[in-house]
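Action item from last week, closing it out:
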Amino acid sequence: MSRPGSQANAPGLCEAHSPMTPTFDPATVEAVVFDIGGVFLYPHPRQIAPVLTELGVAQPSDDMAFREAHHAGVAALSLAAAPLVEAGTTISEPAIWATYDHGYAAALDVDPSLFDAFRAAKPRIEWDWLHVDNRNAFHELHASGMPLAIVSNNSGAAPEQMKQHGVCWVTEDEELPQVAAIIDSSLVGVAKPDPAIMTPALHALGLPPERVLYVGDTVHADVLGATAAGMQSVQLDPFDQHDHYTHARVHDLAALNELLG
C-alpha cells in the first residue's frame, strides 16, 4: 500500500484501541520495525489463478492486479474490524477475516454471488511472492545505518522467510542485512494488535517505543498495535485504499526512505 500521505481513521477507531492516536515524525525516528505480509511478501498469483479459472472468471492481464487485490482485501478488513475495535473485541473471528477474501475477490472482478465459492476453493495461501522493490529499499535503509527489526503475525516461518527471500537475517551475514530481531507471533505466543509482541523487538533495539517506527499494511493490527505499544506507525497503502483515514501512509518503502532522509 502506498502513500505519502497522511490519513486514517474511521471516527473513534484509534481512540477506542488506545488513548493515543497514531503518530509519525521522521525527525524523531531512530529505528524501524517492519511487518512481512503486504510489505515484503504477498500471496502468489499462481495460487489464485487456478481458482479464478475454476469459477469461470477471466484472468487479470497484469500480475500487479493480484497485489492490488491484497490491499483491497486489507481495506475491506479495516472496515469490518472498525466496530470490533471500537467495542474492544478481540479480532480473531473467521467471519471478519472472510471480509479480506471477499474484498480480494471483488478486486479481481469475481461476482459477489461467487465470493463464498472463491473462499472455499482458495488454497491455504503461501506468502511467497516477493516485493523486490520493497526488499531493495529495505537494504538501502539498512545501509544508511538505521537499526531495523521484523515483527510479524506468522506461522513460525518468519525467520526462514526473511532469509529465503533475501530480506535480512539476525546474525552477521555476508549477503544479508543484519537486523536486531525477527519476531514471529507463533513463536512468542502473542500476536498483533496486542502490543506485547513489540516488546522483544524494542528490547533488542534498546530504544524507547516513541523513537521507533512500525511499518505494516493493516490498520487494526499494525497501526493500532504499534500505537498501543507507544510506537510511531506508518501504513503501506500503495493504491490509496485508506485515503479516508488520518494516520500516515506511504506507497512503498522507497517513499518511506525518502521521508526518513
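Closing note: The mean pLDDT is 89.
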